[in-house]
Every structure is written in C-alpha cells, then in structure tokens.
Amino acid sequence: MQKIALITGVTGQDGAYLSEFLLKKNYIVHGIKRRSSLFNTDRIDHLYQDPHIANQNFVLHHGDMTDSTNLIRIIQEVQPDEIYNLAAMSHVHVSFEMPEYTANADGIGTLRLLEAIRILGMEKKVRIYQASTSELYGKVQEIPQTEKTPFYPRSPYAVAKMYAYWITVNYREAYGIYACNGILFNHESPIRGETFVTRKITRATSKIALGLQDKLYLGNLDAKRDWGHAKDYVRMMWMLLQHETPQDWVIATGKTTTVRDFVKMAFAEIGVELEFKGKGVDEKGYIKSSNHPNYKVEIGKEVVAVDPRYFRPTEVELLIGDASKAKEELGWVPQYDLQDLVKDMMKSDLKLMQKDRYLHEGGYDVLNYFE
Ligand code: NDP
Ligand code: GDR
C-alpha cells in the first residue's frame, strides 16, 4: 500500500523539498496551496502532474490555515497517514508588522489542523509533524540549545509558534495523537525565500559579481545563526515521524556563524576577500582583493552597508543547537556543511543572475503590461 502524506505550505522551501523526498519514497503526496493572483508554484512546478491523468501521485488543493472548514474537508478527502504542517507566515521581521495574522495562521492554524483530526475521528490513524523552530529559544537561556532548554520567544512569530508547539504537545497527551515537534534551526537552500538573510546575501553577491548591483544593505551583522541545508532537514522531518513514539526533536548543525561571516563566505565564492570597517550602523564592507577570472570587481569599493530598517524591535542574537538526541536515536547524519551550503546557493544564484543579465542586455528586464 502506498502511504499518503498531506503537506501544508507545499509551495514553500521545505514543502518543495519534502514533496520531492516523499515522492521518491513512493508516497502519494497531497499539498495545500493558497490561491494567489499570480502563479505561486514555482518551487514545485517540476513535480506537477496533469490533473487529467489517472493515478496521480502529486495532488494540489486550494486551502488556508485560517479556514478550518477547508482543512476538515481536505483531510477527510485525502485520508492521510502523515500530515506535515509547514504552512506559516514564516518571516520573523514581517511578523512585527502582521502580529495578528501571524498568530492566526501560525498559532491557531495549528489548532485548527489538530481539531480537524479529532472532529474526523482520525486520532489513531494519522501522524503529525509540526514545524517548530529555534526562534522559540529567543533570548539566550543556555547554549547549546536542546529539547530541554527553556523558551523565551522574541517576536510575534515566535510567540505564535510557541502556542503551536504546546498545543501539539497537549493534543498528543490529551488525545493520544501521534504528534511531534521538529525544533528546526535555520535551514537554507537555493530555493530559500529571497528576503531571508542568506538568500538576500547570495543573490546580491551574484548581482554584484555580474555588475547588476552596487551594494548590499543589511541589518544586524552580529547575529549568529546555526545554518544547515534544507535537504538534510526535510529528510529528518520524515525520519522523526517513523519513530516508534511521538516526541520533540532538535535538528541543528551545532555550529554558529555571524551574518558578517556568511557575507564573507559568499563573496569568497566569487574570488573576493571582503574587509569590514567601522562599528554598528557605520560598519561597511569593502573589496580587499579580487582574483576570479570571470568576476571583476573594483578593489576598495564599498559593497556592504548597514541599514537600520532591517533591525528588529527585539532580536535573537545567538542560536546554536545540539541535535545529539536526533543523531543518536534516529541516526541522522547531515550531508551538507555551511561551506557546501554557501557553494550550492552561490552556484544557483550566479546562474539565475546570469540569465537576468542576458535579459537585461537584450532589453527584456522590464515588462510593461500597460503599454
Ligand atoms: P516558507 O516561507 O518558504 O513557506 C511557507 C509556506 O506556508 C508557503 O507555502 C506559504 O504559501 C504557506 N503559507 C503561509 N501562510 C499560509 C496560510 N495562511 N495558509 C496556508 N499556507 C500558508 O517557509 P519554509 O519552507 O522555510 O519553512 C517551513 C515551515 O518551517 C514554516 O512553518 C516555518 O515557520 C518553519 N521553520 C522554518 C525554518 C527555516 O529555517 N526555513 C526553521 C524552523 C521552522 P505561499 O507560497 O503562498 O506564501
Ligand atoms: P530568522 O531568519 O529570523 O532567523 O528566521 P532571517 O534570515 O530573516 O534572519 C537571520 C538573522 O539575520 C539578521 N539580518 C537580516 N535578516 C534579514 N531577513 N534581512 C536582512 O537584511 C538582515 N540583516 C541581518 C536578522 O536580524 C537575524 O538575526 C528564519 C525563518 O525561516 C523562520 O521561519 C525560522 O523559524 C527561523 O529561521 C529558524
């Protein structure tokens, strides 16, 4: 019998990689996507199957975490063995601008999903993965952070996710539902959303290499994150749902790096050594040397600057996770380190920006719909 998975947030970074992974494992994958006025399925278009053919393995449904009737109907129709709840307003900074929506989608949305299972009497049939986050740790209580480290959320996003974390634990204890929290530290990839810091950096570095952009503006360069590769992390989502008993798991690399050092690593991929001078809002990054045969950038040029608009009202300064439990009990071995991740992202963005440059040179970079 083929297993059936339902993924909320299927159009996101993790949803796309997880769909690929589960399809390779011979699952039938159903995904929930939001209606939007433009196509929003870029990341999963390569998995698309013509809805007119029989026996599809990849099926999309319109839906939203803020609509419980729709969640109940989809779950009833799909009868999943596993549900991966990845849907969320996932941008920490934006959550300060949209706190109520974030609470609704990320916090109450998780409750809606769990209640749907109860309403449908599927408590014993289905296993649920909840996309919890290292943002729960927020203000540093202890390092490295483990499953036992106390939470101290520092944004509306993290507070909403804290509700989702505990409601998942509560439904597991109260109703015996197989529900797990994966407390995942930051994970990135070539298909990471463009406004998260790693992707913002690899895109801008690629554009600077090709002469399409002059400068990269960032916020807090001192923030430290434990960055892994999304491919390693989605494998883990599946692995932890296969464990005999439902538990909560930290997934992390155990290494932490500043935003500043990530920028240096990205520039190193185009043969540039960066030098940072100044402090706080006045800190700037200059080209110290440049030695790539294909990418010529001017020595001494200022290419990185700080813009306070990217500062957060409350910041998470330091994240570093200890995934010993997952490594020991589930045998998780990540295949990528940070260097591999930066290489993978830079390779992909350089290719994308090269395409942009061809379009730009051909005069096709701005499509005027209203001409
Ligand atoms: P993305 O932002 O790339 O994807 C989020 C997905 O959720 C998108 O498919 C988005 O749809 C969808 N979505 C947003 N709001 C709603 C809603 N109201 N109803 C239905 N769908 C919605 O996130 P990631 O793939 O990076 O992360 C996946 C999950 O893991 C998220 O819950 C995130 O908070 C969590 N997480 C992520 C980490 C990371 O480092 N990536 C670390 C720890 C946790 P659309 O495409 O239409 O916007
Ligand atoms: P984060 O990721 O908040 O950790 O949440 P993000 O990449 O947005 O920020 C990481 C750190 O970089 C600093 N920073 C900047 N961030 C952005 N976005 N843009 C900038 O210009 C910039 N300059 C500096 C931030 O202040 C922060 O300290 C991600 C999301 O995927 C969440 O959904 C997930 O739960 C956590 O990771 C784990």
From TrEMBL:
It is an enzyme of class 4 (lyase). Keywords: Lyase, NADP. GO terms for molecular function: GDP-mannose 4,6-dehydratase activity. Its cofactor is NADP(+). InterPro entries: GDP_Man_deHydtase, NAD(P)-bd_dom, NAD(P)-bd_dom_sf. The keyword Cell cycle does not apply. It catalyses: GDP-alpha-D-mannose = GDP-4-dehydro-alpha-D-rhamnose + H2O. It comes from the Bacteria. Its EC number is 4.2.1.47. The keyword Lyase applies. Transmembrane segments: none annotated. It holds the Pfam family GDP_Man_Dehyd. Residues 6-345 form the NAD(P)-binding domain. PANTHER family: GDP-MANNOSE 4,6 DEHYDRATASE, GDP-MANNOSE 4,6-DEHYDRATASE. Catalyzes the conversion of GDP-D-mannose to GDP-4-dehydro-6-deoxy-D-mannose. Belongs to the NAD(P)-dependent epimerase/dehydratase family. GDP-mannose 4,6-dehydratase subfamily. This is GDP-mannose 4,6-dehydratase. It comes from Namhaeicola litoreus.
